[in-house]
Amino acid sequence: RRRANAAKRAEEAALEEAERAREVAARREMRRPEEDRYEKLARAQQRKAAREAEEMERRRHEQEEWERDFRSRLQAEEETRREAQEQERLREEQQRAAREVEVHRSRRERDERRRDEDER
Predict the structure, then answer these.
(1) Residue 15's pLDDT band (boundaries 50, 70, 90)?
(2) Rounded CA gap, 35 and 29, in Å?
(3) How far apart are CA 45 and CA 42, in angstroms?
């Protein structure tokens, strides 16, 4: 009888332990979908953050490229303007030199005419 009672108690204890284990497993399973949902959300947020970071990097590169092009165009325009100014300066210098040559030539001709007239 004692042995039977002990066996019965052991069986009841084993059944209770199995039931507790099932309850713990059931609670764990109930929590898992929620945990999965949070993990999915976290992964989605990470992907979104990565996409945003890539987009920011792409925009930064575009901005830098635009600024380089802009500076390059400004530099080219400045160089063209300087060259045009230099061409204008040279043209004016040439005109001034041509006027001086003309003045000297007309003076020389006038002086020669006077000399010729004086000699006559």
Answers:
(1) very high
(2) 10
(3) 5
